[in-house]
Amino acid sequence: MTLRHSGVRDVIAYNWPQYAAGAATAAAAALLAPRLPRALRPLARTGSVAALTLLCTATAASWHVYDRSGLYTYDWLEDLLPRIPSAYVVVSTGLDEVSAPLAARWPKAQRTAIDLYDPALTSERSLRRARRRVPPPAHAAPGRPETLPHPANSADTVLLVFAAHELRRAQDRERLFTECARLLRPGGTLLVAEHLRDAANTAVFGPGAWHFLPRQEWLRLAAHAGLEHSAERRFAGLIAAFAFSKDRK
Q: Residue 14: exposed, middle, or buried by beta-carbon count in 10 A (0-12, 13-18, 19+)?
């Protein structure tokens, strides 16, 4: 059972300027085509069709991932975590849709939420719109990538779900992963779920896929923090969920 009540509607609500721009581009190209020289008309019509196609594929992909893939049931956590955590930390960068479902899923576990939202670090306007619609949990503590307000060696699991890519500077992501590793107990797991900058995401999201990061970047960040890549799972061919483990020594 999922506590998430939306899906593709959220994506459209958070990113409506991009949807509006795409629709306007398609309409403008279609209206302009008859007024152009004959040689340019096919190009304008092709541009109109391409813009509409991209809107449709992006919307369909979002619906498939967020409403149909089972991503937000969190049943897949059992495949990536060695055990139910007794203490876990959810780190978000402005939008926390993880804390509430996990509190219901792991009611006996000690939970902590840390909010890294800072317009200077996370510049996407879609995050600001999302934050207005879904305020952070009342118990969330503010933090910085280099300073997570939580004791060292105190969590079985730290979760970064659609969060770390919003830190656009590599050094901020490196600091965040290092801090997540500090929070983990020996044998603990950092769980990262993200879209990837790859062929599949580019095919359905077009230029928007460049906001995501390549798979190799997540592996690099984990290695930088001294974590081992222990498991991985894909959703709908577009989402990767990684489990990175801390050495038991």
A: buried
- Give ∠ CA 166-121-201 in degrees, rounded to 5: 20
Closest CA to 190 of 73, 89, 51, 52: 89
| Residue with token string 């000690």 | 110
What's the half-sphere exposure (Cβ side, CA atoms, 13 Å) at 195?
20
Which option is the CATH number for 73-245: 3.40.50.2300, 3.40.50.150, 3.40.1350.10, 3.30.200.20?
3.40.50.150
Confidence of residue 2 (pLDDT cuts 50, 70, 90): very low
Evaluate whether 90 touches 111 at the Cβ level (below 8 Å): yes
Q: What is the C-alpha to C-alpha distance for residues 11 and 58, in angstroms, rounded to an integer?
A: 10
Q: Which spans in 64-211 are helix H?
A: 77-80, 99-105, 125-133, 170-183, 199-205
Instruction: Give Cβ neighbours of residue 216 (< 8 Å, ≥ 6 apart).
Output: none
Burial of 114 (0-12, 13-18, 19+ CB in 10 A): buried
Per-residue pLDDT of 80-130, as tens digits, reads 998 999 999 999 998 898 999 999 999 999 999 999 998 887 767 777 787
Q: Which one, of 88, 98, 71, lies nearest residue 8 by Cα? A: 71
> What amino acid is encoded at 181 in this protein?
A
Residue spans per domain, the chain: 8-68, 73-245
